[in-house]
Each structure stands twice: as C-alpha cells, then as structure tokens.
Amino acid sequence: MRPRQLKNFKQRDDVVGEGHAPKDIQTALAMKGGLNPYREPKYRLVLAQCVREWHGGEHIDWPEGASLQEQGGLIFTGTEKRKHLVELPDRNLPTYARRLMMDVDAPILEPSKVKPVRRFEGMRLCKRYPTIKGWILQMWRPAAHFGRRSTWESFIYKGNPEILMLGPYPERGAYEICGERVERNASGVNIVQTSWEEIPALGLLEDMISFFEWEPLRNYAASPEARIAIRLHEYQQRIQAQEEKEREEQLNWIRDYMKPIMGSSLAAGKMRTELADSAGMREHVGN
C-alpha cells in the first residue's frame, strides 16, 4: 500500500489519553499491514492500560480522593498490644521450644465512614486489560470471527437483557492482542510476554506483521466460541483485579507491622535470638 493511500486513515476511539503510538509508527504499521474496511489500521501499537471497552455489571462510584482502604470498608486508626505466637525457624528444637508468645503492635482496623456516592447496575467503559501494562501489538478481526450476535448477547448480567456482560456485539470487528512471545526471566523460567515497557523497534513489529500476514496464517483464527471465552476471561480478570487491589491495600498494613519479626533479614534474626535468650534458650534461632 502506497503512502498516498494512507493520508486519511483513522484510529478507533477505544484508546484514551496518550495511548496510541507516535504518528510515524502508526503510519508505518498501516503501510505494512494495510487498512480494514473502516479505514482503520489492521495492526496497531497501543498502551494496554489505555484501552477501554464496554462492561456490563455492577459499578460503584466513590467520593473523590477516597483511598482504596476506605473503599474496602476498613481504615487503619493505630496500633494496640496483642499476644502473638512466633515459631522459631530451628527445626532441631522440639515443637514446644520453637514457639514463643510475645507482645506485638497489631494494627487497629475500624469500619470506614466513607460511603459510595453511587452504585448502579448497567453498562460502562472500563479498562480492557487491568493486569497488563505497556505497549501491545493488536490485530483487527472482523465481526464474523466473534460468532453470532445472539450467542454474544446471551451473556447478560443477573438476567437483565439490557446489561450485556461483554458489551455490545462488535459489528465493526474488534482488536485483539497478537504477537505473544516467550522470554526467559532472570530466574531462567520461560514466561509468555504480551507487552513491552518501551516502544519496540519498528523492524521487529514489521517482522511480526509479516508473520501474521503469511498466507497460511492470514485467514486463520480461533473458533468464535474460543474468542468469546477469551472475552469472558478478560471480564473475570477485571472483577478479580479490583478485588485483589482492595485486599492488598488492607493486608499491606499487617505486612508492615509483622515484617520485622517474621522476615529473614539479619535484624529479624537478631530479634528472634533476643527473644530466645529471654526465654532461656541457647540454641541458634537467628538466620
């Protein structure tokens, strides 16, 4: 495709903020992969955290500035002395000798007075990839790849046909992540990577597009059922990501206060040794 044919290509509005790659990258990808019937690039490089899609379910709006801890229903108000059973790491000691009861400063958590401003069940634009950050290469797929409209719209929230869990049927097609690759991390374990922290080299992106445009792969796609299953998985990930974020905020307080005692640092080892000395034990109980 010649450059003069790409003067007026469009980008879909499901990416917010500065989520699109620089214009020169967009143009190069459009030249390499071509355009779809709506004059949008078949391949695009976007920031995963900026991609949005419609999500049907329960949504909660909180007052501006409300912390996750307040939204979780409990807030930290101080500490109090509590008895805590500590088990020393030396397995050569009998069980009764490894366990010590000690006083610790335990966090006090009280019910939050912050209440939701609004709670409603309906449709809303949400992050499509709440667990992915960085640049992702996406490929456009036509509506036919997502099966029948009736099947797509059969996934509804609490029996309400007006609240589609997967959002409106993608009648203009939809973009999906492509180009997953396997990389070896620092521990030597192979992991699947779907994103880049920095914009990858244009040559790499063009090679990936060439691979997916290779004749045997050009018309290949997973079954419509598999694509719907992928969307349902993304839906579940959004729910779990929010729940885990709130739970992590609550647990951070407990971790912070217990870390000096339960950790594996020299300081923690010294603390355990002092506790053992106070109990009249002479065996090694540090690190």
β-strand number: 11
**What structural category do the secondary elements indicate?**
alpha+beta
Helix amount: 25-40%
Sheet with most strands: 3 strands, antiparallel
Number of helices: 8
- Give the low-confidence spans: 260-267, 283-287
Going across the biggest sheet, name each strand in turn: 1-6-9
- Number of structural domains: 2
Shape from CA axes? extended
Distance between the termini: 65 Å
Beta-strand portion reads: 25-35%
Q: Report the C-alpha radius of gyration, rounded.
A: 27 Å
- Helices and strands, in order, run as HEEHEHEEEHEEEEEHHHH
Q: Mean pLDDT, as a whole number?
A: 79
Q: What is the element layout, followed by pairings?
A:
Elements: H1 23-33, E1 43-47, E2 52-61, H2 68-71, E3 74-87, H3 95-98, E4 99-111, E5 118-127, E6 135-141, H4 149-152, E7 156-157, E8 160-164, E9 174-177, E10 181-184, E11 190-193, H5 202-212, H6 215-218, H7 224-262, H8 266-278
Antiparallel strand pairs: 1-6, 2-5, 3-4, 6-9, 7-8, 10-11
